[in-house]
Amino acid sequence: MSERSEAIAARVEAFVRDKIFPYEKDPRATSHGPTDELVQEMRDLAREARVLTPHVLHDGGHLTQRETADVLIRSGLSPLGPVAVNTMAPDEGNIYLIGKVGTPKHKERFLAPMVAGTARSAFFMTEPAEDNGAGSDPSMMLTTCHMEGNHWVVNGRKTFITGAQGAKVGIVMAKSEDGACMFLVELPDPAITIERVPDTIDSSMPGGHALIRIDNLRVPADQMLGQSGEGFKYAQIRLSPARLSHCMRWLGAAKRAQEIATRYVCNRKAFGKLLIDHEGVGFQLAENLIDLRQAELMVYWCADILDQGHLGTAESSMAKVAVSEALMRVADRCVQVMGGTGVTGDTIVEQVFREIRAFRIYDGPTEVHKWSLAKKIKRDFLGKAPA
Ligand SMILES: Cc1cc2nc3c(=O)[nH]c(=O)nc-3n(C[C@H](O)[C@H](O)[C@H](O)COP(=O)(O)OP(=O)(O)OC[C@H]3O[C@@H](n4cnc5c(N)ncnc54)[C@H](O)[C@@H]3O)c2cc1C
Known about the structure:
Number of strands: 11
Largest sheet: 4 strands, antiparallel
Distance between the termini: 47 Å
Helix content: 40-55%
Strand order of the largest sheet: 4-5-9-8
Bound molecules: flavin-adenine dinucleotide
Shape: globular
């Protein structure tokens, strides 16, 4: 930990524990995520405590990935923590991307309110399975864009768009003749209709995950992010850090689940002794400790690679698979050792279990990462194999 990230992380942890844990039972934390009223209330507190958007520095710079890990792990100690301090997905990844690729005008108009925590954003890439659009394979993108005068016109459908309901900024992906493109749009826009927000297993992200129709959305040419046809290249810039930041936040949540499970088994008795003294229970928490530590090491290893200036595509795939699968095991064991209490909403353990189940799918399902790693193994082998 650097001195500056240690100081920020300590402030964030104290804030999340003291001010945000009490909100976990707030009825405004709904099954479609916390309401915007709740988000703003928590952000006002975060602003006051000087922990809002803590990974972005006063001069507009960004903490290193390693430092970001220190801070985001602590923000994840509550499922509401990342929303409260503005380190949540998809905003954290969108802030990073606009910071890297946006023009000064983009930054002033779109990025500044996101960093200030007054605007939420959404990232529009995935398309409905029923249309056979972009999903695990983004190259299947069906949403189109073409130029008309000095505007781009965008048409298509998108799905699982986290936070679209209530967002003020959108990054929309579509295909032109040149290939994939990204656009910055102000939301809401009459050309973008929310068809529905499905019920999903998770519930931490404001606005849920919407199904969207885009009908003749007109975007001024200067709101294209980067160049026409380069959209997948920019998606790559966002991809590794965004994947890793999910690992950071959910690692924090899994650590908290372990804390709660530990408290339970060190107080509850069965068959004449504390649960922790039954080997079957103690071993589960011991295995959690090992999984948590391995997940943490994986996060810091990958963060270092990104900090060295590499894209880290393969490394972030490895980290995403290892961490999401490890945290799933941790959450499941926490539920199990808490008996019936583990599956109730009385603690956040059951929510952490649900959230991490979804995490194994978004930002690339486990199998897709393994498949792309297998392709790399083959490429590397054939590249080195003697003729
Ligand atoms: C909670 C949540 C939030 C999300 N937020 C956003 C968002 O904000 N913006 C956005 O654009 N998208 C978002 N997504 C979409 C997410 O990125 C996609 O769900 C993911 O890319 C998988 O695409 P799909 O759902 O179409 O699954 P499909 O492409 O239909 O794949 C289904 C399954 O097939 C298997 N599979 C696919 N390819 C392979 C392969 N090569 N080898 C082996 N198995 C394979 C995997 O098990 C995969 O889970 C979100 C999804 C969820 C669940």
